[in-house]
Each structure stands twice: as structure tokens, then as C-alpha cells.
Design a protein that fits this description.
Elements: H1 4-11, H2 19-25, H3 29-39, H4 43-53, E1 64-67, H5 77-80, E2 87-92, H6 95-107, E3 113-117, E4 130-136, H7 145-154, E5 156-167, H8 173-183, H9 196-206, E6 207-215, E7 218-225
Parallel strand pairs: 1-2, 1-4, 2-3, 4-5
Antiparallel strand pairs: 5-7, 6-7
Helix pairs in contact: 2-3
């Protein structure tokens, strides 16, 4: 899915954009500075990794989708406007960030999108509930990554898609330096971090049809949970 709606939404942020929004969308002067300084990315790189991260969601998606974490909703509320027949659940541990996402959803009358505050390490859902689990820029921040991998796998239906993106180490020295000296001490990112090799190995141990592509220090992935074999 190209998600042209996202790029259009970036251009409309204006004064509504928070510092986080501007950075994650590379859409403000400050955001472009951070993208270049920390991530060695320009706008084209930024758009590229987000497009790859969202590639597992078809334009006619009409199933149940879990997004964790939703953050401020700047990346996905424009997408959900087009997925009118989907059943979308957005979860985040940060009440403040999720409140911004809720305002964006309300402004667009997204009645098919609901919000829950919760912990990715203990998702409040039954097994195999969702057709798709989407995680944008989350796993590098989760304190218990093993639990996060386990829980996102648990709530995904057999044959369902797990897709998203997050920071991985070992791809860009300057990015790794900024993460270690600034993002970690402030608690924005929490080690340990995957490498491209370790992430690919992990995903292939859990899923099938794994695609993994890196854009600078961002790993973008899309994979599918194996279907259950028919009982003999």
C-alpha cells in the first residue's frame, strides 16, 4: 500500500505538529534537522521506510488490526480514514501521546478506530484475535522486548500479518552514537537492540514469508504467522 494519504497529511500538519510529529514525519524544519543529524535521512528516506513498514496493509483491508504503539497517530490516522471497513484497535502505554491520537481520530470521525491504554508485554486480548498487528517505531523503546514479541505473536491469527519498523544497531555509526549517548540516557530507547541479522533470524523462527529491508538504521519488516496444520 502506497499510503499517499500519509504524505498529504504531513503537508497539512502546520502548527498542529508536535516536535515528535515533525521528527517522525521529517515535515518541519526542526524535524528535518533531527532526521539528518541523528538518522542521516532526508525526506525521501523517511517516506521510503514508512512505506515499507506499512506495506503489509492492503488498501482494501477489512479485518481486525492492532496498532501498538499508536503514539500521536500522526502516521496512521490518515491511513485509517481509507480503511472504513476495518476494525482498528490502537494501544499505547503513554496516555498523553494516545490522547493526541484520539483527537486526530475524532477530528476525522473515525468511528471504526478505538483506543486502549495498555502494556505491549501483557496485551489485554484473547489469543489469535487480530488479522494484522502493526508496530511502528515501538520495539526499540519497549523495556521487555521478549514479552513484546511473544504477545504480538500470541494475539495474531494464523495466516495473519505482522509488519512495522524500528531502530536496529550496526547500520550507521553516527546514529548508534546518538542513540547510546542521548536516547538511552533519556529513556526514549531501551537496550538491547536488534541488528538486521538478529531480527531476520528472530522473525524467521516465528513467522513465514519474512521480508526485511533496512533504510539507514531503520528495519522495515513484513511477515506472516504460519497457518495451523490440519489435524490428521
Amino acid at each position: 500500500m502506497a499510503h499517499e494519504e500519509i504524505r498529504q497529511a504531513y503537508q497539512m500538519l502546520g502548527q498542529e505538529a508536535t516536535a515528535y510529529d515533525g521528527m517522525i514525519t521529517c515535515s518541519t524544519f526542526f524535524g528535518r534537522m533531527i532526521c539528518k543529524l541523528v538518522w542521516d535521512m532526508n525526506k525521501a528516506d523517511n517516506d521510503r521506510y514508512l512505506q515499507l513498514a506499512l506495506s503489509g496493509i492492503p488498501e482494501d483491508f477489512a479485518g481486525k488490526l492492532l496498532e501498538v504503539p499508536v503514539g500521536t497517530g500522526v502516521l496512521t490516522m490518515p491511513v485509517y480514514r481509507k480503511l472504513e471497513n476495518a476494525d482498528v484497535t490502537c494501544l499505547d502505554y503513554s496516555a498523553d501521546m494516545m490522547a493526541t491520537a484520539q483527537k486526530r481520530a475524532a477530528a476525522s470521525s473515525l468511528s471504526h478506530v478505538r483506543f486502549l491504554r495498555g502494556d505491549v508485554g501483557a496485551l489485554p486480548f484473547e489469543d489469535e484475535r487480530f488479522d494484522t498487528v502493526l508496530s511502528l517505531n515501538g520495539f526499540h523503546a519497549f523495556p521487555d522486548k521478549e514479552a513484546a514479541y511473544r504477545e504480538t505473536f500470541r494475539v495474531l491469527k494464523p495466516g495473519g500479518v505482522f509488519c512495522g519498523c524500528f531502530y536496529i544497531r550496526g547500520e550507521n555509526r553516527s546514529t548508534d552514537w546518538f542513540i547510546r549517548h542521548f536516547y538511552e540516557p533519556k529513556g526514549f530507547f531501551t537496550p538491547p537492540f536488534e541488528t538486521a541479522e538478529s531480527l531476520n533470524k528472530r522473525l524467521e523462527s516465528l513467522y513465514t514469508s519474512v521480508t526485511l529491508e533496512t533504510v539507514k538504521s531503520m528495519a522495515c519488516f513484513c511477515c506472516r504467522k504460519r497457518k495451523k496444520e490440519n489435524a490428521s
